[in-house]
Specification:
The radius of gyration is 23 Å and the shape is globular. It has two domains: about 290 residues, Zn peptidases (Aminopeptidase), CATH 3.40.630.10; about 140 residues, Aminopeptidase i, Domain 2, CATH 2.30.250. The protein contains 14 helices and 22 strands. Helix 4 packs across helix 14 and helix 9 crosses helix 14. Helices cover about 30% and strands about 25% of the residues. By secondary structure, the chain is of the alpha/beta class. It binds manganese (II) ion (2 copies). The site of one manganese (II) ion has 6 residues, from helix 9.
């Protein structure tokens, strides 16, 4: 346990380095903070997967006068365009008045994928009066957190005939939900001795999907058969169609205000939709001189792999295409460009104070947090932004009165994490991590401050200008 006396002596005066945004904001800003939060919660509730977020973003972009871009199209100043990457990620761009060869472009990159439980390709089985789905978890989760809570099923299935079917069960009030069992404490003595990693192992993350047998004497697996009957009736799918599906279990919970004063928001998937949403709103609202590019990518949680992750050539191709459209040298454009890697960081949690180093931890409600570097143990795997880049960002934020703070994930040598920053920096683009501090990151229900998501919006907007 920490000694409170010692803690007090070590505590810094946060007034000089960190300001509580609620504390310093005037009445109209407070109102903007709370109004913004309502839109953000609606976004969280509508978008539980990257595909759903992709569709939401495109719908909003079209409302804002954006039109679809295809590789090879011509472009002109003032154009507002979007392009989807296979329905799992979107790039929006708004061509500014400044010469991209001289001034570069301004990019904000966030990710739309979140930790969840994906179905295996042969998921359905019956055992002892119940039927289940087998899962393979996606991203870094504490497996025990996903048991004994309502789960919703989201995704797509491609039927044998090639038809695409969208699935979303468990979000509406009258929908059924799904469930992973945990052991009763009465019989859990042995389980409670296990390490948290083993309390629930990956092959125990089996989803209860049925319990009603079909009335058919000849059927061997009656409960599995009844689930298949329903899937056929509702979606026209057969057991074999799971092979060409992407179905995920996510918490069947809505985003809610947390606390008597409603300062905070609890919700699923806030890493990284809490940065995606303000970046989207920022590009919509900004009157930009620079060419602004908002990238909302997939697969960050599993290493930015594949053709929809940040490592995909897709994103570099877009930049090259914008250069080509304006006869600009892509090398020069990249060299002059700047990028914010908009991903969450860990917020100081007084319940677990010993993993944080107070002077360099992000404090909840003190604004969007800049991690000059991420990585772990000796900055391994970090894209360490230069003092020059940080200096430029400081000036941009100061000019627009952005309330922000610096941060490092936790104590040195205690753990670490990475973001997409290094993959963008590799393209010879100055990149720095700036995102919203989160408590209980990667848990089924994560906690953020309304002040911080609004601060992120003001920060990204100032940067795009
Ligand atoms: Mn993230
Ligand atoms: Mn994450």
């Amino acid at each position: 346990m920490e000694n409170i006396g010692t803690e007090k002596k070590q505590a810094v005066d946060y007034k000089y380095v960190k300001k509580n945004y609620f504390d310093v904001a005037d009445e109209s800003t407070i109102k903007s903070i709370f109004d913004f939060a309502e839109h953000y919660k609606a976004f969280l509730d509508e978008c539980k997967t990257e595909r759903e977020a992709n569709d939401y973003i495109i719908r909003k972009a079209v409302e804002q006068g954006y039109s679809e871009y295809n590789f090879g199209d011509t472009l002109k100043k003032g154009d507002k365009k979007f392009i989807t990457n296979r329905g799992k990620g979107v790039v929006l761009f708004k061509i500014g008045s400044k010469d991209i060869e001289k001034e570069g472009v301004r990019m904000v990159v966030s990710h739309l994928d979140c930790p969840r439980l994906d179905l295996k390709q042969v998921p359905l089985y019956e055992s002892d009066g119940l039927s289940f789905f087998k899962t393979h978890y996606y991203g870094g989760i504490k497996k025990y957190q996903w048991t004994a809570m309502p789960l919703a099923l989201h995704g797509v299935v491609y039927l044998k005939n090639g038809e695409k079917v969208n699935v979303s069960i468990g979000e509406k009030e009258n929908d059924p939900v799904f469930y992973i069992s945990d052991l009763l404490p009465h019989l859990g003595q042995k389980q409670m001795q296990l390490s948290a990693k083993e309390v629930i192992n990956a092959e125990q993350l089996n989803i209860v999907v049925g319990g009603l047998p079909v009335k058919n004497k000849d059927e061997r697996e009656k409960i599995k058969a009844s689930v298949l009957q329903i899937l056929y009736k509702e979606y026209g799918m057969t057991e074999e169609d799971f092979i060409s599906s992407e179905l995920s279990l996510v918490p069947a919970l809505k985003a809610r205000d947390i606390g008597f004063d409603r300062a905070l928001i609890g919700g699923y998937g806030q890493d990284d939709r809490v940065c995606a949403f303000p970046s989207l709103r920022a590009i919509f609202d900004v009157d930009n001189q620079h060419t602004a590019i908002c990238l909302l990518v997939d697969k960050e949680e599993i290493g930015s792999e594949g053709n929809t992750g940040m490592k995909s050539k897709f994103y570099e191709d877009i930049l090259n295409e914008i250069c080509r459209a304006f006869n600009a040298n892509a090398c020069l454009v990249r060299q002059k460009s700047m990028c914010i890697s908009a991903d969450v960081t860990s917020a100081f949690d007084p319940n677990f104070a010993d993993v944080y180093e107070r002077n360099n931890a992000a404090m909840l409600s003190c604004g969007v947090a800049m991690n000059k570097y991420t990585g772990s143990a000796g900055k391994a795997g970090a894209s360490d932004a230069s003092a020059e880049t940080v200096g430029q960002i400081r000036q941009i934020f100061a000019k627009s009165n952005v309330v922000w703070q610096t941060s490092e994930l936790g104590k040195v040598d205690i753990g670490g994490g990475g973001t997409v920053a290094k993959f963008i920096a590799q393209l010879n683009i100055d990149t720095v991590d700036i995102g919203v501090p989160v408590i209980s990151m990667h848990a089924p229900y994560e906690l953020i401050s309304k002040a911080d998501v609004y601060s992120a919006y003001t920060a990204y907007k100032a940067f795009f200008e």
